[in-house]
Sequence to fold (561 residues):
Amino acid sequence: MPTSDHLAAAELARLCAAKGIQHAIISPGSRSAPLVIAFNAQAGIECMQVIDERSAAFFALGMAQQLHAPVALICTSGSAVLNYGPAIAEAFYQRAPLLLITADRPEELVDQGEGQAIRQHGVLALHVRRSIQLPRTTDDELAQWQCGRMINEAIGATLLPVPGPVHVNIPFAEPLYGTTESEGNSRAIATVMTESFILPEHARWLIAQLSACRSVMILAGQGVWSKGLRDQLLHLATLPQITVLTEATSNLDEASFITCIDRVIEGVNARNERDLRPDLLITFGGAVVSKRIRSLMRKWKPAQHWNIDLGQRHFDTYQSLSHDIAVSPEIFFAQIASQVQPNESIYGEAWKMLDVSTRGIHDRTLAEAPFCDLTVFNTLNDRIPGDSDVHLANSTPARYAQLFDRLRGHRWFSNRGTSGIDGCTSTALGAAFATKKLTTLITGDTAFCYDSNAFWNEHLSPLLKVIVIDNGGGNIFRFIDGPDKNEELLPWFEAPHGRSIEQLVRSFDLVYHHASDQASLEAGIDSLYKENDKPAVLHITTDALTSPRILREYFKKLRGT
Fold:
């Protein structure tokens, strides 16, 4: 099949396929015609159209997140490129491999009054692993060699040294729509994956520290981890000097771990904090949702803080960093865990006792609470089908999910790299398309409206179920200290949208269900998970004043105040 006669476009498509990229998400445009021609002709790459570039980038992010492989994004020149920005920032901090390919005008026409010509080269450089501009002309062998080498470099950088987005910008001069039968000859340079490990003398020191220290806290951030790492953490959690704290998006839900951080640490007070304060904090993984644990660790300032990260980010989130351990968490715990010796500490038991105490208060509060966001999340936690994927929008869903025990085999995801609400639905759609698994998105009414263009997409999985918790806007601001104190300014924070969720859902010809009390919620969940040929939405309305009041009372009871 003929390919583009622009060699850079043809070689890019060919090398993407040769290096394992199987999906390209394309948004329409004219300047990108050579790329569309080349990728559409390339065997081994599935081309998919998503019109809105911002949604397309988040859709690709959701795919890359699940496939653990690069996904290509293609758009035309000008402001189209800037619409990739939010998703690229999220992918950068979430370490998701994306190859964004942007068509451009010739550099000579930038700032010369040419339409759709902006300063495009390097425009996303702050949030990509590599930013590359391919040559506009490839008339001689040296230029052709350089073009192929740069393409290889760009694709490889999506995975090494750590995954992330890479930007390839390509200026095209007209004519744009020509084709050729000739094949390129750039060699595909194989990416060989490697793994670092801890040197033996350093490993011995780390093991000795863990064996001697009487209070060790392991705090897991966002990620999906291997069974081997989980088993190593389970072993460490049996040692009396160690406690393991996880969140929903840590995907490490075990009965022997502290899995509800925000719930448990509300029980920390002047009487028990000496028993709960760690001398050694070990962190790994992506972002941690809990603002409470960040504040507490910054106050306690552990004597040592080890951060385990192959990319050596030097994340000093808790302002106590003492050791930056540049290996993957999988390697670190495999080398260390089995050799750590128990000591006579009561540290792990102190955390377990507090967990039991706060769980009892949690259960009693829920039993007495009226229908509100808290009881809705309790019901969802119990009734979403087990062993499926759950995506949490920012910010209310990501926070509420941390308050409930999760032992039903769900995998939890959320865009916590930058923690924005702007692409939560598109990301979940991309993930559901990639996994072909039952996928549930729990979102708020504002986030749902904000990303409604996600459904302007022909690649909607019928296995996606969307739960919209409608509490009248950005209801979290009625709980956060500060905005709730000023009723006059509160609408600027809450930003009530005034949209009809039902009409919005039906405008996209999606299946719609509604719930407004406990009985209709349970019936709505049953209906939501019936088989459909398109995504289904459950719209849950709760009272805007009741939910924050109940949540405040909930935390007061946990604190014993």
Notes: The two ends are 73 Å apart (CA to CA). Residues 58 and 427 are 5 Å apart (CA to CA). The mean pLDDT is 92.
